[in-house]
Amino acid sequence: MASARGRRRLAIVGAGASGVAAFVAAVRYGVAESIDLIDPVGIGAGVAFSAKHDALLCNTSAETMSIVDDEPDDFLAYLRASGVAATKDTFAPRAYVSRYLTARYEQFAASAREAGIEHRLVKAAAVRIERSGTAKDYRIVLSDRSVVDATDVLVCIGHGAPQAPPEVEPHLGAPLLFESLYPEQRVLEALKPRSRVLVLGSRLSAVDSALLLCEAGHTVEMASPSGRLPAVRTATPRACPVDVDTQAFARVDLSSPVFAWRLLRIIARAAQAVGSRPLREQIERTREPIERMQREAELARRGVTDWQRILVGYMDAAEARLRDEPLALQRRALAECSRVVGRYLFACPVQNAEKLLGYASQGRLTVRAGTPARLHPGSRWTVAWRDGTNDDFDAVVCATGFGNPPLAATANAVIVGDAAQGSGPLQVAPDLRVRFDRATKPERIWTLGLASQAGAPIVNAVYQAVRQAHDICRAWHTDDMTCQSQRSVVEELE
Length: 494
Prior knowledge:
This protein is α/β, with parallel strands linked by helices and about 500 residues long. It has helices at about 15-30, 75-80, 95-115, 185-190, 205-215, 245-250, 260-275, 290-300, 310-320, 325-345, 350-360, 460-494, and strands at about 10-15, 30-40, 120, 125-130, 140, 145-150, 150-155, 175-180, 195-200, 220-225, 230-235, 350, 365-370, 370-375, 380-385, 390-395, 395-400, 405-410, 415, 445.
């Protein structure tokens, strides 16, 4: 670990995977004389990894879950030390990630004490990050009305509130209608045995919901506009086995009406280069969702899904290509990417697919392409579908995703949480630094992980946030060493 040379008073807002990764990097590089880690629920206790049921797995494998950037097998080592017979390709239960974050936090908190770095875990929510009396310092106003002072701030909060479909919003708060699966125990305890449950959504959150509900003995219908389930994979390797064609990405015109086709050609060439198998032999195009998942699970078990081996490398290349483009063009390109390869970027572990297929074969899981026109509460929920049919369910679970991190800005402050809805958008540069309106220089406020979406267009995996934290702290350490060297030269000359 680097010695503590930095004179920073660092505040890290958020103690999930991104926040703990930032804390680890700051301690390892010794870039602060004090570190305040701010989170209302503590270490690793947010929605993403606080699930307690082993049926809820990480959607990326162990190789991408380390929070120590230059030790990619750190999470794998933790799993094995915990008695889990894991490999790099293991999709671990999410509860292990929460425990891992706590273990590494405690380890590096001890390292901070040994290095003379002051540290506090502040259990409160940040509400506002504003300039203090001097241009170099910030005040972080907390939900309990206390204040944390800092010279530098890393914003590491996760996603926002669950997003309910418009047809559901009038009924939020009603019995047996849940805005999300989490906390999952609340949902399970509210249901009567062998309930019939409508899960709105068919992507990863909906897969988690269906798995948990079917495992508990309920019958589930999943419904979404497309009715498409995620693709199936056996791992998410971090290293790309073929060279990423960055020149092809550089040449592609993001505004072209055939952008999606050209993107698919780039990916198809790379996927074929891995094992000399055309992409058409690695994927399944059947429209019926259960049959498609069945065939894709078979492809995964046979080890012919070479596309999964290039995803991380090409996702990083796409992020680098988009980073400096105007926000509107980024969003258009991301929408096209999602349309073409979204099922594969957000594929589910083969273990989850096999469980779903088992429930489907028992008649306990069905998938519908369609959305409700109206919901009517009563002794059961009556759902009026847009095709004119009606159906009854004992409960409704929304699995339609979460909002963006609740961040906004005023002329001299970052607003965090509910108040962000009434403020202007947060401006984040490609170097992840925040800039206030009309400010001549960027602030000493950085965003990491999901919070950095305005500056880093594709950030949806732990390893990406870990890399961001590492790069920022390494740059600080280099600056500190340069300044110290310059001071030494001046002292010698004097």
